[in-house]
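From the pipeline queue, job 12 of 40. The input is one protein chain; the requested action is below.

Action: predict structure.
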Amino acid sequence: MYKPCPAQNRITVEGTVVNDKNSPIPFANVTIKGTDHGVPCNAEGHYRVYAAPSDSLVLVFSAIGYTPTEYTLKITGALKYSANVTLQTAVSHLEEVAVLSTQRHFGSIERISPKDIQFIPDVSGSFESILKTLPGVSSSNEMSSQYSVRGGNFDENLVYVNDVEIYRSFLIRSGQQEGLSFINSDMVEGIDFSAGGFSAEYGDKMSSVLSIKYRQPFKNAARADVSLLGFNGLVEGVGKNGKFTHITGVRYKTSQYMLSSLDVGGEYNPSFIDFQSNLTWRFSSSFLLSFLGNYSSNKYQFIPTVRETRFGSFTNALQLKVFYEGQEVNHFETAQGALSADFRPSDDVLLKLIASSFRAREAETFDVIGQYLLNELDNSLGSSTYGDSSINVGIGGFINHARNYLDANFYRIEHLGTYSLDGNTLRWGLRHQMEEIRDRINEWDLIDSSGYSVPYNGNDLILAYHLRSSNNIFSHRLSGFVQDVYKFSVNKWEITANAGIRLLHWSFNNETNISPRASIMLKPNWKRNIAFHLSGGSYHQPPMYKELRYPDGSINPNIKSQKSIHTVLGMEYQFMAWERPFRFQTEVYYKYFSDLIPYKIDNVRILYVGENLAKGYAQGIDFKVNGEFVKGSESWASLSLMQTYEDVENDSYVDRNGVTHYPGYYPRPTDQRVSIGLFFQDYIPGNPTFRVHLSGFFGTGLPFSPPNSTRYDVYARMPAYKRVDIGFTKVLRDNNGNGGTLHRKYPWLKSLWIGAEVFNLFDFKNTISYLWVQTVSNQSNQSGQYAVPNYLTSRRVNIKISANF
């Protein structure tokens, strides 16, 4: 262990990690022996690490499928050293040192390598595509980057980039409006993810935490990706003296090609643009200043013309045909900036100060007129009119109108600290956040069926739905935490314990929450490489703007935080098979909820009731196996079994016989009992430049209910979500300069590959939500309400080109 020393005397070691063929090993791990201090290499195998001076320094290098290597560096008094290391391919007897790109970092936190993200075939093109294949994570909408974790909804996930919390848009109601997520995959260096039971250093949400670290470049470089869905560009570099680094990315996405496969035809004009930059200035070995900036503009314009949807069963086949006029124009604009100062007065102490701001300007406007025909289809086999309309069930029209505007400004100042000594790592933090939200909502729906407005009273024109509100909210949030991580051993069993506590006060409702959390990880001294972890604690989620608003648009001043108690028990086993590294992990969990705010989900829009009415629970078990099923390419598969229920306390209804019933527990809108995720990579034997990447997902149907129903226990389930995407890649030149003619003619071209992706390979018809069609009467003098499925995208082919310079 290193003794404390003045930070200005710290030394810098940097270099490159390569294999026995002199090819760089991306994302190899570099640690200082005897300490917890380490860094990952970047995509080109470069690393930079800081250490205290001594007579000698021992670095440990490790990577997937390679034998860990120790490198002893003689310290001569200089402040900067170079260490280039070659790792040898591991053999089968090295079971105890197998290293995979997804590893258990601590307890419920999983550390994921970003190297395979660019190869995952995904419609949204978002970083979150890798999360959707992990255990406990589910998503039933390929157009959206949103995900739910172990029975939670999209609003219950924490996301950090460089220790700065990231927020999602407020008004977005469908995946096709969403645009680009905040995280730029090309800039990512490290990924930590927890599906529950995370420690006190992470904030106040009930489901999960995703912590991203953006990388600092080691050299000047550029990257570009072009496809039918958009463009990504990246420029990075280092100043002459190595103290200044910059990495800047621009992304453009258009989903017009994918949206043309939806049932609703028309003129789609989506345009999503994102600029992002991460700058660092190292004034000395002890002081680093960094800036993270982001601006995004997501515009969505749609002029619908016609819709034709067939649904129902073989014995009751129906067809909805709608003719449209009008348009929808939405604009979601966000800007975020964070200035961070890292000061290390000694090797044992790190002090960090972050000042950041977030600004959102959102506008949702539409005026859409629709005239519809709902017909029953002829299902008589052999009939000359088989599949054609046989009887009219309903006819009518509707007008949907909205003028919704929201402005949000968040300002934060935060301090984070770390102190390490003799196996203890003490962390603390304090944050003050000021929030200002201004919301103007005006939306209404008019429904006409057979010349009658619905609802109908015989005299007045009544709107089916109307919401008009104006709210201004100004509040402060003060939060802090302290936690200690202690590593020790007993009879050669490695034990890591973590205990901490969070505190949060919100001025809006004058509520103070205290959240104790703890975890322990055991690694027995067994022949097999097995580790166990147990974690849990109290988790409070104070409301954001959407949760505290009643359905009529007014604000609930007495709203309280939703509360959850987590218990997570897990095991992981690392082993070798076919002389290649593998890892199996499983977690079983139980979460008890109180003061829940019930909600319904329509596409990606969450509609809260604005009151703490319910209690509930979520329970389940997750499995995952990952490893080199094909030598040199990591793949994984996950299985999750989950149940989540809630009970609106003291609710009841009276049936037609006058009997009062108390429904009790009912499935939450995220109750997906079974989900399966898969990512598989392969290449042609003897020619690894031809590669195949396959991702798949299956999830059982989610509960849904009519939009105006006040009964929570009345529900049906959507069909299961099924999807398989596949990508084919041909590497024309790799990072090692292998590329024949390309290498000779274009030496500045570092790598180049082209690919083809087939989205929804088996052309499954997946349902994301329902359009509810009401009728007054039909030819049989019956009235009713019909749930017409809104289907997601069908099969599409995408072409992609990627180059590094």
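Job complete. The domain at 109-804 is CATH 2.40.170.20 (Maltoporin; Chain A).
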